[in-house]
Each structure stands twice: as C-alpha cells, then as structure tokens.
Amino acid sequence: MKKIFILLAFLFLLTGCGLLEFLEDGEPAEGRELVTVERVVDGDTVIVHLEDGSRERVRLLLIDTPESVKPDSEVQPFGEEASDFAKELMPEGETVELERGSPERDDYDRMLAYIWVEDENVNQLLVEEGYARVAFVYEPNTKYLEELEEAQEEAREKENNIWSIPGYVESRFNEY
User: Fold this and answer.
1) Is 172 a catalytic site residue?
2) Domain 33-164, what fold?
3) 67 catalytic, yes or no?
4) Catalytic one among 56, 67, 81, 128?
5) For the TNase-like domain, which residue ranges apply (predicted)?
C-alpha cells in the first residue's frame, strides 16, 4: 500500500510539473505580447489582432523585402517568395509574440514591431534566408540591429535569394 501511495505521489508530481510547463508556455517573454495573425500582407507587413481585440497593421522593424502587392507596381524578384516565407512562419490564426518598437508607429500609422515565433525572431529569419535586407535603421529602434546585420552578411556570402542578383539589393530592389 505504501508503494502505491509513493508511486501515485510521484506520478502526481510529474503530471503537475508537466502542467506547469504547459501553462508557462502560454506566457509571452518579457517585453512581448501575444497577438493573433489575421494575415500576412507581404514579406515585411502583417495584420494582427491584439489581446484587447483591436486590429493592427504591423511593419516589421529593421527590414525591407521586395514588393509583391504594392499598388501600381510590378512584383519584384523574390517578392512573392518573401511573402510566402512570411506566411509559412506566421499562418493565419497563429498566435505569435509581438515586441513593439519605440516609437510604436511609422509615418503611415503602422505599428512597428519585431515578431517572434517559437522564440525565433521572424525579422531575422527573413534576413537569414535572403528574403529581406536590413533597412530603415532609425534610433532608438535598433535593439536587434547587430544580429540582423550578422544574418545579412551570412546571406550575402551564401548569395541567398535577393543576394543572388548582382546589384539588386544595393538598388533597393528598384532596378529589376
């Protein structure tokens, strides 16, 4: 009987620890908030719903991707691929973590932010894969600039995607 009690107590502890880990996983990291992805507009813009139910158009900080949906413009090389990669990282209905910039808004009233999926910086993943360049660097929104610049250098050296077309990135995607 004593062995059964000890075994049950042990199982209870294991189950309890597992439940605590599960509950902790639902909490965002410090300085971040949970948001739900409505849709990805293009590689560097996403529409989300905040916890209070409000809807926000979010511009990913410190990056620029080729255009894929800009009115009166042709789709630029790797624009659709950047958008598809962002959609893969942030599917509709997915809960992600958002870290607001400071200031919080750009000149077009879009929220400026970094987005995190499973503790990975989406902004940085886009740069690493060669779908985005580091751009629009304005203080004080430079918290992850060093990491993004390192990722960009690696993508450039590997000639990943946007870096595979000579001069394309340097032209800010305009001459192709």
Assistant:
1) no
2) OB fold (Dihydrolipoamide Acetyltransferase, E2P) (2.40.50)
3) yes
4) 67
5) 31-165
